């Protein structure tokens, strides 16, 4: 009997059902036709990397947002500095 090879995408989707959707391993095992032993091994092997990949994506979005905000605030600060210098010169 030959071993069945599952794609990495299939494994990650199975892990997602267990970790994110909080489905029991036995249920996922039966539904997908994979042994529960294999699922536990996949969670151990890929679980953290699957979750960290999602976190990395969310962190990248947050980083872009924060950089845009820093740029906008820097521009506002520079405008206010110029305005303050202009009015200080006018009143002085």
Features:
92 residues; 0% strand; 83% helix; rod-shaped
Structural class: mainly alpha
CATH architecture: Orthogonal Bundle
Tell me the number of strands: 0
Strand content: under 5%
Low-confidence stretches: none
Order of helices and strands: HHH
| Straight-line N-to-C gap | 93 Å
Topology:
Layout: H1 8-19, H2 25-32, H3 36-91
Describe the protein in words.
It is rod-shaped and about 90 Å long. With 92 residues, the chain is mostly helical. It has helices spanning 8-19, 25-32, 36-91. It has a single domain (8-91), classed as Arc Repressor Mutant, subunit A, CATH 1.10.10. The N and C termini lie far apart (93 Å). It contains three helices and no strands. 83% of the residues lie in helices and 0% in strands.
Describe the structure concisely:
The protein is built from three helices and no strands. By secondary structure, the protein is mainly alpha-helical. GO terms for molecular function: DNA binding; transposase activity.
């Amino acid at each position: 009997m030959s071993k069945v090879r599952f794609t990495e995408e299939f494994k990650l989707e199975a892990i997602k059902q267990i970790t994110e959707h909080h489905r029991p391993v036995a249920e996922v095992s039966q539904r997908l036709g994979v042994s529960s032993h294999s699922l536990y091994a996949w969670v151990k092997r890929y679980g953290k990397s699957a979750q960290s990949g999602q976190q990395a994506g969310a962190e990248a979005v947050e980083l872009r947002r924060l950089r845009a905000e820093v740029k906008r605030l820097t521009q506002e600060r520079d405008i206010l500095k110029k305005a303050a210098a202009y009015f200080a010169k006018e009143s002085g």
